[in-house]
Amino acid sequence: MKTLIAITITLFLTNLTFAQTTDDKKAVLGVVNELFAQMRAANAAGILATGTAENQLVAVRKLKDGKTRVDVINGEAFTKFFTKADAVEEVMYAPNVEVSGDWAMVWGRYVFFVGDKLSHCGINQFNLVRTDAGWKIANGASTINPGDCNDKEKAMRSSLPKRTE
Known about the structure:
Blueprint: H1 2-41, H2 44-49, E1 51-62, E2 68-74, H3 75-79, E3 88-92, E4 96-100, E5 103-114, E6 117-131, E7 134-144, H4 151-154
Parallel strand pairs: 1-7
Antiparallel strand pairs: 1-2, 3-5, 4-5, 5-6, 6-7
């Protein structure tokens, strides 16, 4: 009887942990997708709301001359890149999400469009933390390489919903 009770409790806790992890993964990915939505809307306050007050982005940019430039940008400076609604769209397709307690990571390849033109592709990686206000982006890193788009990414604009500019 004790064994049956122990198995029942273990199964209950396993299911509870799985449900929490699944819910956390959805919530974490929701924050990253909200960041992209706020970037597209050119909503500085909305962009800042997805992150902690101290968040920052490291951009690893491949330059035309083949050299690499690394920029570290705080949240406020990051918002300055988005000044016109519907001017840009970033899509991270097939994102990977890991959650461990109050820390989470989202990473994957992305494509970045300016208007209807493909600007660049690369890899995004975001670290998120659980706060009293919910999950927030603590920091992130992105590669920015116009020459790093594969054939699937080059064809993605036509498969995305039509823009309403």
